[in-house]
Amino acid sequence: MATNEGPTIEVKLFVDKEKKKVLFAESEKEFVDVLFSFLTMPLGTIVRLLGKQSQMGCLDEVYKSVEDLSTDFFQTKAAKGCFFHL
């Protein structure tokens, strides 16, 4: 049987087994940096590209809420536009 001698990452998870949800995760800085790098594409763009049906209801709802906000709540009209068109 082959052994995996590559680098390993330790991740500690606090899980609610009844609800099957991760409540808390802890790891080294490098791993967290990689996870955060996945967020470099704005969430608004992801939801828009998926046709506002991302199968992640909370993101769809946040997108719709921001979309429905008046431009009065943004510093400029362009600032609101950045959320949708990056």
Could you explain the architecture of this structure?
The N and C termini lie far apart (47 Å). A two-stranded antiparallel sheet has the order 1-2. The radius of gyration is 18 Å and the shape is elongated. The model has no long low-confidence stretch (mean pLDDT 78). The chain has 4 helices and 2 strands, in the order ββαααα. The protein is of the alpha+beta class and 86 residues long. A hairpin with a 4-residue loop joins strand 1 and strand 2 (21-27). InterPro entries: DUF674. Pfam families: DUF674 (PF05056). This is DUF674 family protein. It comes from Urochloa decumbens.
Task: Please render the helix and strand layout as text.
Blueprint: E1 11-16, E2 21-27, H1 29-37, H2 43-49, H3 57-68, H4 77-85
Antiparallel strand pairs: 1-2
Jot down its keywords.
two-stranded antiparallel ribbon; DUF674; 2 strands; DUF674 family protein; alpha+beta
Short summary:
This protein is 43% helix and 15% strand.
Q: Which value, in Å, is the CA radius of gyration?
A: 18 Å
Query: Quick check: average pLDDT?
Result: 78
Cα distance spanning the termini: 47 Å
Secondary-structure element string:
EEHHHH
Overall SS class: alpha+beta
